[in-house]
Amino acid sequence: MSLLSLDVGPGVAALQSWAGPHALALGSNVTVVDKVLPDMLHMVDPHWYQFPPMNPLWHGLLGFVIGVLGFISMTGNGMVIYIFTTTKNLKTPSNLLVVNLAFSDFCMMAAMSPAMVINCYNETWVFGPLACELYGCAGSLFGCASIWSMTMIAFDRYNVIVRGIAAKPMTNNGALLRIAFIWLFCLAWTVAPFFGWNRYVPEGNMTACGTDYLNKDWLSRSYILVYSVFVYFLPLALIVYSYFYIVQAVSAHEKAMREQAKKMNVASLRSSEAANTSAECKLAKVALMTISLWFMAWTPYLVINYAGIFENATISPLATIWGSLFAKANAVYNPIVYGISHPRYRAALYKRFPALSCQASPDEAVSVASDSTTVSEKPAA
Predict the structure, then answer these.
(1) Does this model's pTM top 0.90?
(2) Is 183 exposed, middle or buried (0-12, 13-18, 19+ CB in 10 A)?
């Protein structure tokens, strides 16, 4: 029988029509899509049919890591919520934003981690199309809410530290209005795909769902582009702007205090200043850590989305794992940056959970979740 007349069967013929000759060049007609349930196939982009199945070890590793991250995140953020809402001296308007950030991160991992672990065990999405769309929406909603909560926290610190006594103190109602804006703004963006502006589909590893960044229709592309402006570039610019002027203001304040101490012929105006460590250095480190972790968390996912809408040839199923993993890891270290680095939080943590806390040093300089109204340092509670 001639190879030209060989009946390849409907499965391979379908694969050829979907993926082209590259799929057959792999030496097998088995693809990463083979385990996808029939009711999900209409959501799978043809791009993924050219890739062979992922090594089961990757699925196992991803499921294990996501499970661990979920446990750490829900525990850490749960403790932040509990301590900030039950400790009297932590119930400030500024800290409501920190609680909102912890709540958003907690919900993101509670909604996504268990589902991801189960799907990784089955090596495909097993909960059906509607759950896939809700999963993608939840990830987008809670991720967006976390990003804008961090932005509002940075704005609050800017208002307190840079503007000082000229700033209008934030009230509880003001904080609640900001939180309401965050959730309504993020909800508007994340429900848009349900009304035809983009859509939520399985990602390349077929165990998670997200926005459709492979659709070359300009209506779909426009959602990714506009969404990235308002949920990545704008928040990042505002956070960088805020921390730049915060560090600048604290540096100027420290310089003035050193000059005043010199005029008074004393070594320092602070009775408990740490040797060779100034407030602006500490705050600069916090600012650099905040911005760096934020950039590290969300940039890989942005790169994947932009690669998809402009040139999808470089996106593999394995690559989609890393974008998702880095974004979810953000919910793990946010409690560390915005909670544990807060002196009064650490004091409350030490009091209630001595075995888990990092006790604040007596010379603690600047509170990360600012609840002061001046640029002057305050001792840990």
Answers:
(1) no
(2) middle
